[in-house]
Amino acid sequence: MLKSAEVSERISGLREKVLSTKPNVCTERAMFYTQAYAENEEKPIIIKRAIALEKTLLGMTIFIDEGELIVGNQSSSHRAAPIFPEYAVDWLPEEMDSLDKRSGDAFFITDEHKKELVEIAAWWKGKVLYDKGRALMSQELRDLQDSAIIKATGNLTSGDAHIAVDFYKILDVGLNGYLDEISLFHKQVKRYEQDGVRKDHFYTSLSISIKAFQAFIRRFQELAMQQAEASTNPERKNELLAISNNCQVIAEKAPENFYQALQLVYFVQLILQIESNGHSVSLGRMDQYLYPFYKKDIQTGNLTDEFASELLESTWIKLLSVNKIRPWSHTRFSAGGPLYQNVTIGGQTTEGLDAVNELSFLILHSVGKMKLTQPNLSVRFHKNISETFINECIRVIEKGFGMPAFNNDEIVIPELIKLGVEKDDAYNYSAIGCIEIAVPGKWGYRCTGMSFLNLMRVMLASMYDGLDKYSGKIFYKGIGNFADFNSFDELYKAWQHQIKFYAQKTVEIDTAVDTAIEEYVPDILCSAFVDSCISRGKTIKEGGSKYDFVSGLQVGIANLGNSLAAIKKLVFEEKKITKHELLQAIESDFEGKEGEKIRYMLLNFAPKYGNDDDYVDLLLRDAYLDFIVELEKYHTTRYNRGPIGCRYYAGTSSISANVPNGSVVPATPDGRKAFTPVAEGSSPSSGSDVLGPTAVFKSVSKLPTEKIMGGVLLNQKLTPATIKTDEDKEKLVSILRTFFTDLKGWHVQYNIVSRETLLAAKKDPEKYRDLIVRVAGYCAFFTNLSPDTQDDIIARTEQTL
Amino acid sequence: MIFNFQRFSTHDGPGIRTVIFYKGCPLHCDWCSNPESQAFGPSLMYDRKLCKSFGDCLKQESNYLSAGENGILIDWASVTKPEKLKDICASRALTVSGEEKSIGEILVEIEKDRSFFEQGDGGVTFSGGEPLSQGPELESLLEELYKLKIDVAIETSLYVSWENIERCLGRNINFLVDLKHTDSDKFERFTGGNAALVLSNIKKLAASRENIIIRVPVIPEFNHTFQEIKEIVDFTVSLKAVREIHFLPFHKLGSAKYEMLGMDYKYSGIRNLDVAEMAEYVVYAESVGLIAKIGG
User: Fold this and answer.
1) Which class in CATH covers the domain with range B2-39+99-294?
2) What's the predicted TM-score (pTM) here?
3) Among A298, A553, A652, B19, which is least packed, fewest CB within 10 Å?
């Protein structure tokens, strides 16, 4: 339980309730969708899906829990994951019996639900997105995915998302405003034209969906009223009446105050996650679009900061109660089951002024108090950002739950403008999901999150004339074997040759996936809330959005640079290791004393990314650019269909995908053992950055950041002692300023090193060489300390959450 | 000779600093936390935990290295020319501390974090060992840094000839002066040095209007009594030109390095000092008009 001094008893209770709930599986949505599809088989898919959403919103269980101030539920109980059979469902009967035994993200499921799921799965056989998408792919693309060099399974087993909708407009015009706009355009449809039929159905589906949304809100209006009438507690009665009144207003009109605005925002967020199960549905710049409501209410005395904070905290708990069940194959890529519902605060106004306001502080502090995994809080940094605000951010970071993360206006805004984004839109970008970025309400899906490319498998294939040793297949014949190469240059050319092929293949897979999603699972409500879908009469996937830039994820960045540098230096320049020795070592996973020695030479005698060493940093930059330059040649399926852009850029926001991606990579020339994790995002390989945070910042900033608009993810570890005093905090802020203002870094997020990490470092020093102990006039790494000194530091480090 | 460039140092002068650790010190304090800094030449260090018994070191050097049961045995008294063992050991159990660096090489290292210095009064701190015991090249380096407008601090015991100090002056350097004790007998017993020379140098330095902060390592059995600290504080006040004093509580972070160097650590049985134990020293220093801080 949280301390009562920090939050109200109500919030503490609601939080505890959601946290202590064991997630189960809810079949209601699956039943309604299956019925709707079965009863309307002849209808166009878009109408079918509108009816299915309507049926669900009208029929699903709703509830208002004791003490709740913000209402709305995704499924029949807290944290119960709804099922989205239209994407993929085969896996469920298969994994059903082991769901509660998973090592992470376990779900409970009753026998009755199991029976229902078996029936549902049977009905959907051959009809789901996963099967249809796979059928669109050539055998080669299916083989590539099965080999795990390119992974895109998650993109066919669920919806797209990675999007934020236009909350400014939603709060401005209200849901009736959308109905008016839809009807206006619907009237203009020319049914005699080729495209007229499709547009006609699109507008019909939009209006069914918005009306269903309104009806859903009205159900809460009535439920709150019933509960108010039944309540014997006068205080709670008043709260319920207020909830009922809120729902009555926002079911139709624009919200009148902060409370209603927040409730509507939450409803939208919720509905998007009932319509589709794509994750990273984000809330955009909440401190900006809610600010006018907040300010007015504070000025008129209708709102206190205490109550505003309680409402925000209620919303965070509500965000946590939304859940998603993924197949185990995909769960491994997203440890901890997060939905990455991002809230972005700070940044600049469209005039370039500091946008930090009182609400930014309230949001920051309320998230800090709750210490939950949702929302994912991002702060937009810029060179004139309020000093007080940044200092407060550091205080929240000190709590050790990894938030807030920082994104940098100084690189994002100018680069967006260069890509063709209008200035006002560029200044209004927000983080989406984790660290990626888009302009809320104007951008299509998946500013990141297209296919995952396993760079180290490609690098290894370039050493074996194109042979992927792991799968035993040659996907693309190479230009020779490493054993026959006489210079590093030959290896490098082999890399360039292979990576071009794989870059194209990622786009081929994405194209098949996009085609299938467009055709079989169009989102309707989500399209309504994204500019300019309504006026164009198109879903987002058909080219309805104003902008369309996407990115896949490249995994194993640091390993790529370190491997190339090790070969260049130790094999070709210093000749400390022969080609034969290297091959033997990696093929045997560094077996035997000789193998182990080669491994240590690779680890210790070659430069490592993360230490501000141009030798490896520039090599990595060039090798990554070989991929990026190729990728930039391709377009998305929306090209020439409306949006600005329709292009790909690179991305490294791969979250925990470094673990499963590593699990399919044999030993690599950077000294990494077979099947162990590869490096995460753009961060240095674990334990290889031994010169501290400034050197890491320098290395990361040498990547071609301006071309990695899908995100340059950097996680840094901080020992709690590093930011203990105010002076320490100021120094951390000072290096952040340099990283963002001068070096144009993209992102950084801090993990406070826990007691557990220090214990692990004591046991396994090799992996934690980056933990530095800093005391005046003294230098050492944690792993070099004597065991009793280590114990002393461990004893002084607090247990984490 | 330099044994470490430490970037992002936050307790050795204002702002973000790169600390350059020089090797070689005329003192050998019993509590020294950087024992590898004491010898003026390169030092061999052996971390048994990391040893994988690859045996490459034995092939390179058989006079004072031999195979042991768990790793290697080192006849420390016979160690000569350890530099030939540099980059021999793949697991980095056996390393050589200390490398000659040209001014150009040092400047390259300093440049790397220059953008971080500029955000908040940061710069370079020379530490050691004793940076002022280095040859005349330190002066050339200081001159270069002065021209480049990079902030410089020097951590020093001032246990060097006045000429070595004098040639650094006039470049707006912050001197972080280690004042360990005012009593000559105790100073000599624990550090092997002469307090009178240190005190006289401090007085001269103060008289030459340089920026000085006095840093007092508070060490059990050596100066950890109110009376002894009071004398150091009173001396500091008497200098007039010095306004700031830092108390650095004794810690044993360096203990493992003694073993790696084949040296005895006389303070192994002594406990670390707590920040709280510095409180009365801070109170006293402030009462006589100094700015007092714990830690750097």
Assistant:
1) alpha beta
2) 0.95
3) A298
